[in-house]
Amino acid sequence: MKLLSIEKELKENAYPGRGIIIGRSADGKSAVTAYFIMGRSENSRNRVFVEEGEGIRTQAFDPSKMEDPSLIIYAPVRVLGEQTIVTNGDQTDTIYDGMSRGETFEQSLRIREFEPDAPNYTPRISGVMTVKDGTYEYAMSILKSNSGNPKQCNRYTYSYQGCVPGEGRFIHTYMHDGNPLPSFEGEPKLVEISDDMEAFTDLLWNSLNEDNKVSLFVRYIDIATGTYRTAIKNKNQ
User: Fold this and answer.
1) Which candidate, 78, 147, 166, 171, has a CA 20 to 30 Å from the CA of 125?
2) In this structure, are residues 125 and 88 in contact, taking their beta carbons and an 8 Å threshold?
3) What is the rounded distance in angstroms from the CA atom of residue 39 to the CA atom of residue 157?
4) How far apart are CA 133 and CA 91, in angstroms?
5) Cβ count near 8 (within 10 Å)
6) What is the DSSP-derived secondary structure letter of residue 2?
7) What's the rounded Cα separation, in Å, for the pair 60 and 78?
C-alpha cells in the first residue's frame, strides 16, 4: 500500500466528515491518534471539543442554537486502563462498557450499527490503542450500510501490530461531499505520522476545509511510560 500524505488527503477532500488517524510517531517513541469533526449544518458546526477526565466530549458552543443533540453530542475519546478508545459517536461508551466486561473491541461493537440518519446512514468509525509494558498495537473498525441500503450492516475490523514508526492509518466517514453522502470505502489509508505533535496538529488543522472544519483532537502517548500530551483545536472560540 502506498504511503500517502495526510496533508494532501485532507486538502483535496472538502468534506471527509469525521476522521480518525492512529499510528506511531516517526521517532518510534509515541502512539499517536487524531480525531476531527466537520459540519455542513448550523447544528453540526455549533460544537467544540472540551476535555473530560482523560478523554474529551463534544459540547454545544452556543446552547441556545442547539437543535437535535442525539448524534452530535458524545464522548469521542475515553481511556480504559492501558487502552485509549476513539470514535465518532456514542459507541465510545459501548466499547468502554464492553471491554470493561472482558469483551474484545470487535465483540463490543456487535450491538451497534451505522447511524440512523437517512439517507446518509453515516458509518460508525472506531479505534482502540493499547499501550502496555513498552508495547503498542491498535485496531480500527467501521460499521456501514450496504452501499446505502440500511437493511444490511457491513462490519469491518482492522488490527495493526508492530506499528512501524512514521506510519499510521486514516479512516473517515465519507468519501467526499455529496447528497446523500457516500460512505468510506476500502481499508484505512496508510498515511505519514510526524514525531512533532505541535507541527502535526497544525498540519491537520490547516489542511481541513476552512468552511467545514469544526474541531480537532490530537494525542501523543509515550510508549515507554504511558504518559500523554493532548492538543485541541476549535473553530468556535
Assistant:
1) 166
2) yes
3) 26
4) 27
5) 12
6) P
7) 19
Q: Which amino acid is at 146?
A: N
Q: What single string gives the DSSP state of each residue in 57-96?
A: EEEESSGGG----TTT-S-SEEEETTEEEEESSTHHHHHH
- Going from the N-terminus, what domains does the chain have, and what CATH number goes with each? 6-234 (3.60.20.20)
CA distance 2 to 47: 34
**Which grid cell is 219?**
494525542
Q: Kindly state the cell numbers that stand for 86.
A: 476513539
Q: Report the distance separating Cα 47 and Cα 72, nearest Å.
A: 8
CA angle 92/233/122 to nearest 5° reads 40
Distance CA 60, CA 66 (A): 7
How far apart, in Å, are the Cα atoms of 75 and each of 24, 88, 181?
A: 23, 8, 23
pTM attached to this predicted model = 0.97
Write out the chain's pLDDT in tens, 237 residues: 999 999 999 999 999 999 999 999 999 999 999 999 999 999 999 999 999 999 999 999 999 999 888 889 999 999 999 999 999 999 999 999 999 999 999 999 999 999 999 999 999 999 999 999 999 999 999 999 999 999 999 999 999 998 999 999 999 999 999 999 999 999 999 999 999 999 999 999 999 999 999 999 999 999 999 999 999 999 998
